[in-house]
Amino acid sequence: KVVSNALHAQQLGKRYGAHWALRNCNIQLPRGCIAGLVGNNGAGKTTLLHLAAGLLRPSTGSIEVLGTPSHNMAMLLPHIGFVAQECSLYRQFTVSETLIAGRKLNPTWDESLARSLVDRFKLPLKQTIGKLSGGQQALVAIIMALAKDPELLLLDEPFSNIDPLAKHEIGKVIMELAFERSLTILISSHVLADLEALCDYLIILAASQVRLADSIEHIMEQHKLLIGPSESF
Ligand code: ATP
């Protein structure tokens, strides 16, 4: 079956008790794009990523990931790399032990990619995760998710703890891999500037609703139609 959308949400909603964290979301994210998920605190970004990762069930509507309902975790787990906002690595493991566990748990593990990224970011292999800085922990989590060689990578606010140089390097790695491996990436941030150089698709959430979900190319075209070509200024 040919599946052109990496993610397809239809009338997707999620309620926590009486509070709607997401309402009526319609998104069709094409495969192979790098999408930015932007919104203020509490807009519903983490909720959408957790729904996509199959960690939450929708309250209304549906969400398909790589052509499969996202609650079908057994089917999707090997194909999704998910980096949570909080560090989800074992704090007492060393970086090296963490990578060995990744290799053992993931049949598609790319050892040479993992090693080259550890070198690129100068991560100390013998140090325990708990003693790394927040930014270094985030880098290890991103490396773990990338080395799994997923088809869809979900990153929840990966840049919030990372210094500008590492941010730039991670951006470069993400663009290289998206290009080389047709990887689809969904990255959340509350700072649009962190994502604009990286993304070719943008999803804007505000007050639990999708305000915009479109390719940057299409957004630019619409913008030109609205304001006219720059020569007219
Ligand atoms: P942030 O940038 O602060 O992480 P976000 O855009 O990721 O925010 P979510 O974490 O998805 O937003 O939260 C959306 C809304 O749902 C918020 O109002 C939040 O308080 C609420 N919420 C999230 N998780 C729960 C939960 N388990 N129980 C109750 N309310 C929740």
Topology:
Elements: E1 5-16, E2 19-30, E3 34-38, H1 45-52, E4 60-65, E5 68-69, H2 73-76, E6 80-83, H3 95-105, H4 111-120, H5 134-147, E7 152-155, H6 164-181, E8 184-189, H7 192-195, E9 201-206, E10 209-215, H8 216-227
Parallel strand pairs: 3-8, 3-9, 6-7, 7-8
Antiparallel strand pairs: 1-2, 1-4, 4-5, 9-10
Helix pairs in contact: 4-5
The protein binds adenosine-5'-triphosphate.
Please state the CA-atom Rg, rounded to the nearest Å.
18 Å
Give the bound compounds.
adenosine-5'-triphosphate
| Assembly state | single chain
Question: N- to C-terminal separation?
Answer: 49 Å
Helical residues, percent:
25-40%
- Tell me what portion of residues adopts beta-strand conformation: 25-35%
Global structural class: alpha/beta
Average pLDDT works out at 89
Q: What would you call the shape?
A: globular
- Total helices: the number is 8
The description of the largest β-sheet is: 6 strands, mixed
Low-pLDDT stretches = none
Order of helices and strands: EEEHEEHEHHHEHEHEEH
Number of strands: 10
Adjacency order of strands in the biggest sheet? 6-7-8-3-9-10
Account of the protein in words:
By secondary structure, the protein is an alpha/beta fold. It has helices at 45-52, 73-76, 95-105, 111-120, 134-147, 164-181, 192-195, 216-227, and strands at 5-16, 19-30, 34-38, 60-65, 68-69, 80-83, 152-155, 184-189, 201-206, 209-215. It has a six-stranded mixed sheet with strand order 6-7-8-3-9-10, with helices on both faces. Strands 2-1-4-5 form a four-stranded antiparallel sheet, with helices on one face. A hairpin with a 2-residue loop joins β4 (60-65) and β5 (68-69). The mean pLDDT is 89. Adenosine-5'-triphosphate (ATP) binds at residues 16, 19, 21, 39, 41-47, 190. Adenosine-5'-triphosphate binds next to β2 and α1.
